[in-house]
Amino acid sequence: MFVLGNLITALATILDYVLTIANWLIIIRALLSWVNPDPYNVIVQFLYKVTEPLLAPFRRLVPAYSIGIDLSPIFALLAIWFLKLFLIRTLFGIATRL
Question: pTM of the entire structure?
Answer without folding.
Answer: 0.88
